[in-house]
From TrEMBL:
Name recorded for this polypeptide: DNA alkylation repair enzyme
Superkingdom per UniProt: Eukaryota
Cross-referenced Pfam families: DNA_alkylation (PF08713)
Organism: Aphanomyces invadans
PANTHER family xrefs: ARMADILLO-TYPE FOLD, DNA ALKYLATION REPAIR PROTEIN
């Protein structure tokens, strides 16, 4: 994660876009001190919080997207400040949904291949039949966030005829960690001890799939619960009868204790 240096800061301010200027005007140090308490620093040790609420970030994008260039968005995405990066990704999503609002948007897709993974949630249902190269890279990545993205994207498949693909990819991840219990994802290139966010994401997808077809989830857990981690199975069975859910959780692996707190994420 980049560290904001003084020279870079001066350069950014000197050529600041209207969106960046708006964000900097919204910064509230007192709120930043409160917000940082809800973020586990092990996941983002170098993030700088400036105290901008998410609704404010969204409103700033709606107001200034039309006068913002692709370079402005890329600068935000590489900014060391947490809320600036968040706004950059909100802007990409907004441009996809309202391409007429961003002159730099390409009708053929996202501006560059590097951004596809961030908007893959929209493309996934269209491309899953041939598993596009960008998604294959996510599946093969060892990076914690890219691995998690490859799972969370599956939520958009569940209402489609490709729900079985979501189950198959969840099983891919479950098998991967079952085959090598010492396997870990990386964060900023270094091995990260906790897989909690990965196991939670798998549980979310399975739980949501089960809402649409309880029998399919039951069949999946009958066959694979013993290979999954308890966190995954606990989330997957949240809407099951308690006694039935407990039987599946009891079959699952305990896994390695995680030092990362479990309330980092909002439920899907």
């Amino acid at each position: 994660m980049p560290v904001l240096r003084s020279k870079a800061s001066k350069k950014i301010v000197a050529s600041a876009s209207s969106l960046l200027q708006c964000l900097e005007g919204l910064a509230k140090p007192s709120y930043a001190q409160q917000a940082v308490k809800f973020v586990h620093r092990s996941y983002c040790p170098n993030d700088i919080f400036v105290g901008i609420r998410v609704p404010q970030c969204r409103e700033a994008v709606k107001t200034h997207l039309g006068s913002t260039t692709l370079k402005d968005i890329l600068d935000l995405i590489h900014d060391a400040r947490h809320e600036m990066r968040l706004t950059g990704f909100i802007a990409l999503t907004e441009a996809f949904h309202r391409p007429h609002s961003a002159s730099w948007w390409s009708d053929d897709g996202v501006p560059t291949e590097d951004h596809i993974k961030h908007l893959g949630i929209t493309f996934c249902a269209k491309c899953i039949d041939e598993l596009p190269a960008w998604y294959q890279r996510l599946l093969q990545s060892k990076d914690l966030w890219e691995t998690r993205i490859s799972i969370v994207l599956l939520l958009r498949l569940l209402p489609t005829e490709h729900c079985n693909v979501a189950y198959a990819i969840c099983l891919h991840h479950i098998n991967k960690f079952d085959a090598d219990p010492s396997l870990r994802c990386t964060l900023e290139g270094a091995s990260f001890p906790s897989l909690d966010l990965i196991h939670k994401a798998l549980g979310w997808v399975l739980r949501e799939a089960g809402k649409r077809n309880k029998a399919a989830l039951t069949r999946f857990l009958d066959e694979h619960a013993a290979k999954a981690f308890k966190t995954t199975v606990r989330y997957a069975t949240e809407h099951m009868d308690r006694a039935k859910a407990k039987r599946y959780v009891d079959r699952a692996q305990k896994g390695v204790a995680s030092h990362a707190a479990t309330n980092l994420d909002d439920e899907a």
